[in-house]
Design goal:
InterPro entries: EGC1/2, Expansin/allergen_DPBB_dom, RlpA-like_DPBB, RlpA-like_sf. By secondary structure, this protein is an alpha/beta fold. Helix content is about 25%, strand content about 30%.
């Protein structure tokens, strides 16, 4: 294999690693069933480990189908001082959270419950694609 090819392969691997390692912070809320219809999949049921994207990640429907790993970082208010359960959850974007959405990602009730106490209502999160 030529030296140029090796350099290109290494650069490609580095680019992949940096994109995977990037984690963003935001907030998460949750919504309750029914989850269909959705903006991305209409009446197709995509399960319960799903989420709606706010304008911050929606990208004019580009977020449809993306998978995000979401982890609770802590509370956003004084209601539940320690809402995090210590778990992360992987969700698929299936819907749009319209303007006025109170979180970066609006998780399904089931997904939110995996990572935090639903009584918190809104939590600080870290998410990666």
């Amino acid at each position: 294999m030529g030296i140029r090819m090796r350099i290109l392969m290494v650069l490609g691997m580095l680019a992949c690693l940096t994109s995977v390692a990037f984690a963003a912070e935001g907030t998460a809320t949750f919504y309750t069933p029914p989850y269909v219809p959705s903006s991305c999949y209409g009446y197709e049921n995509r399960g319960v480990m799903i989420a709606a994207a706010s304008d911050a990640i929606w990208g004019n429907r580009a977020a449809c189908g993306r998978r995000y790993r979401v982890r609770c970082l802590g509370p956003t208010n004084q209601g539940v001082p320690q809402p995090c359960r210590g778990n992360g959850v992987e969700v698929q974007i299936v819907d749009y959270c319209p303007p006025g959405c109170h979180g970066t990602i609006d998780l399904s009730q089931e997904a939110f419950s995996q990572i935090a106490d639903p009584n918190a209502g809104k939590i600080r999160i870290e998410y990666t694609q």
